[in-house]
Amino acid sequence: MTLALLCPGQGGQQPGMFDRLAASAAAAPMLQVLAQLLGAAPATLAADPDRFRNAIAQPLVCAAALGHWLALRDHLPPPRVVAGYSAGELAAHAVAGSLEPAQCLQLAIDRAAIMDAAAPADGGLLAVIGLERAVIDVLCRDHGVFVAIVNGDDHVVLGGQRPALDALQAVAESRGARSVPLPVSVPAHTPLLASAAAAFAQRLAVTELHAPRTRLLAGIDGRSVVTVEQVRRSLAEQIEQTVQWQTVMQQAVEHGARVFLELGPGSALSRRVRELHPQLQARAVEEFHTLEGVLEWVEAACARA
Questions:
Q1: What percent of the chain stands above pLDDT 70?
Q2: Structural domain count, the chain
Q3: Residue 186 within a domain
Q4: CA–CA separation, 60 vs 46, rounded Å?
């Protein structure tokens, strides 16, 4: 088949992100586990302004992606490729079979705690669109900021401390760029979190993992993750290394993916697929009111592909 599944990272949380799962018997046990771990129902947490706090955001986005996968998987064609963006890479591993759902949720909570403990108090992320990479590299060097995620040739996310990001933002906008501060309080995927990467590697070393049963692409380089050791290495290293999302999407296409379904929350990843590859079909579960609507679109899109 030609289906690729995408698990998003932080930023797209919104109060209705679990609405489609309210009647799903398949997703209910996983959502109950998250409620026990965090002390409140996922839907309640999603409606709280605190949903952007790292400790809540990372398990929430993983639970949303996993919940939609569990609700849909018996009716979807087998995916050709799975990939996850930032924290969503944990959920992607659960979709691909490297992790059990409960393990994924606990690791998301642990990952957030480890990153919070290592991050500077004024850290964050800034999306910058419309400048060539060579210009971005100079601005980063001048301001002590790092490229955290590469979404395209002129679309990057930068990580660093807020004063430096604010100064760079002013210069970038003066040169015609569009920039958006992201609701993330840690400089993820930068050397500022090297100690967090090492700590999470230790956490993964004592976690029982499996080799993925579905092709899974690592965020740091787009390569297929095929062994347990590669699972551990890629999940730890992406905390301090740049996520090469443009490369991941190109590799997904080269592996035969033609239909992309973003499992939620948000629709940024599916929109980016359409921008990078206008000939492909990509949508997000959040574009549909019901799970049945998602399945109807996937069936029609795969038939057209």
A1: 100
A2: 2
A3: no
A4: 7
Q: Is residue 50 part of a domain?
A: yes
pLDDT digits (tens, 9 = 90+) for 254-268: 999 999 999 989 999
Segments forming the whole domain that contains residue 241 = 3-118+191-304
Q: What CATH number does the domain containing 159 carry?
A: 3.30.70.250
Q: Are residues 196 and 254 in the same domain?
A: yes
Tokens 């955290």 sit at which residue? 148
- Length of the chain (residues): 305
CA atoms within 13 A on the CB side of 302: 17
Mind listing the pLDDT tens digit for each residue in 40-54? 999 999 999 999 999
Are 252 and 214 a contacting pair, CB within 8 Å? no
Those residues with Cβ within 8 angstroms of residue 233's Cβ, 6 or more apart along the chain or in another chain:
201
205 & 132 share domain: no
**Cα separation of 87 and 90, whole Å?**
6
pTM for this model (two decimals)? 0.97
155 is a domain residue: yes
- 167-189: buried (b, 16+ CB within 10 Å) or exposed (e) per residue? bbbebbeeeebebeebebbbbbb
Q: Does one domain contain both 200 and 95?
A: yes
Can you read off the two tokens belonging to residue 258?
A: 């033609």
The string of pLDDT tens digits covering residues 196-207 is 999 999 999 999
